[in-house]
Fold this protein.
Amino acid sequence: MTGPNTIKTPAELISGDFTAADEPFGLFAVWFAEAVKSEPNDPNAMALATVDPDGLPDVRMVLLKGFDTAGFVFYSHIDSAKGRELAATPKAGLLFHWKSLRRQVRIRGTVTRVTDAEADAYFATRPKQAQIGAWASKQSQPLESRMAFEKAIALNAAKYALGEVPRPPGWSGWRIAPQAFEFWHDRPFRLHDRITFTRAAPDAEWSKTRLYP
Ligand SMILES: Cc1cc2nc3c(=O)[nH]c(=O)nc-3n(C[C@H](O)[C@H](O)[C@H](O)COP(=O)(O)O)c2cc1C
């Protein structure tokens, strides 16, 4: 990924002391690259926390599909519970837990929808079966039987048998622009290392703090 939001990773972070990092995106990029090598599956899986209109938190896993200094992107259905919650309260928390590395990253920030062009471009990279599934699923709505879903899949597979599958209008992506990060690394006897980075605005300087475990 190159462009104005490209992450530059200081070489000294790659094997050095992570608490010496002076900004969070480069450190995230290093840890994510290590997770890609170490995790048995889905190193890009992250818990996404939202709140409903009563302020009751809601959390589920999604897959990170891109990140740069503009934010962290995932894709889903607009009318799903998360889609509706984000429309009402465009703020979210993300959590990565890389078990084999004994590391955790927390991210909090404001959320915007990706552009239609960005969503179209990502949708076009998905396997055709997944594209058809996106048309067939009314995500998070009650489903009377598995058979009803299979029927919707078969109908859409027939409809889009020839040619490319367009992106359903109710399917898109969201970008979380971080205003806070926390990096946590396990140390023996629960004497873990934790650092946070916070900033008041997207163009403000990051402020770093070390925390007790
Ligand atoms: C590892 C993992 C990754 C997932 N990735 C996604 C994803 O990228 N997008 C998505 O819509 N659902 C994904 N899901 C399913 C969601 O966790 C969830 O069941 C679904 O999106 C409906 O959530 P909602 O009712 O809160 O909107 C994933 C589930 C798991 C376990």
Notes: Strands lie at 45-51, 57-63, 66-68, 71-77, 91-98, 103-113, 171-185, 193-198, 207-211. The chain has two domains: 11-124+167-211, 127-166. The CA atoms of residues 132 and 157 lie 6 Å apart. The first strand starts at residue 45 and ends at 51.
